[in-house]
Design goal:
By secondary structure, this protein is of the alpha+beta class. It is 67% helix and 19% strand. It has two helices and two strands; from the N terminus they run βααβ. The longest helix is centred in the C-terminal third of the chain and has 35 residues. The N and C termini lie close together (6 Å).
Length: 96
């Protein structure tokens, strides 16, 4: 007995590829920025306990701000990447 298999295929246009690449590039850039910022804040000698506490507080504030910008940008670009993914095409295939 023949079995019908249906596949859903989407073909992205120029804007779809543009937003997808922007989304991926933004996430890679923000990951690099976050890890580089945390790594640079964790290295280096400190002269006193106050300086160590200030560096830790500054790193936490900076990391939190970067996370906020990362999430906001990823949500916005992710929505555009999903909205511009292209028209849906159904392909039917008969398998025996």
């Amino acid at each position: 007995m023949a079995k019908i298999i249906r596949k859903e295929i989407r073909k992205r246009g120029f804007l779809g590829w543009l937003f997808l690449l922007l989304f991926l590039g933004f996430n890679i850039f923000m990951a690099f920025g976050l890890f580089a910022g945390v790594q640079s804040a964790a290295t280096g000698p400190v002269a006193s306990d106050a300086e160590a506490a200030g560096r830790a507080i500054g790193a936490a504030i900076g990391g939190g701000f970067l996370l906020f910008v990362w999430v906001a940008g990823a949500v916005i670009l992710g929505l555009f990447a999903v909205l511009f993914r292209g028209r849906k095409t159904l392909i039917e295939e008969t398998v025996e």
